[in-house]
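Course assignment 3, question 2. Fill in each field.
Student: A.L.
Task: Predict the tertiary structure for the chain below.
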Amino acid sequence: MHHHGYLWAGPKERFDNEALRRPPHPEPPPTGGKPEAVQRYREVAAGFPTVDLPPLETAYWLVKPRALVRGTWHEAKEAAAWLAETLAEYAFRFASEADRDVARLASLVNSAAARLNSGADVAFGYYLERPSYLSLAVVTCSPNRSMPELPCPVR
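Answer field:
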């Protein structure tokens, strides 16, 4: 078992494009369906695996391009250390003052380490100024507990 880290920061309006953050339905629209629905399905089917937006379900990071992996760790504590460093790097930009609290962030990182050690995934999201959004995730791999059929992106 190992862990992959992912980070996305960008405009909140782009993050809010949920159609590109969820996988396409397993079955395409019927052949005689509305052309708009067929076209939208094609766009989502082509875009979801390649777009850098955070998926709605954390495990789906594993189907994203390998270049989006920010780090790979064999130990949960190493992955949690990356989370701590990244949170510290962005904390001054958090829109909510409560989210900047150092003790709160340390508690989140400690909890994340325990969850990762158990084989679970971890995801955090924060509103930044302007309005922007920060998404951090560490996904357990080989296999992923919630979606064991997903392949490892770095093999």
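Instructor remarks: The two ends are 13 Å apart (CA to CA). The helical segments are 12-15, 35-47, 76-90, 102-117.
Grade: pending
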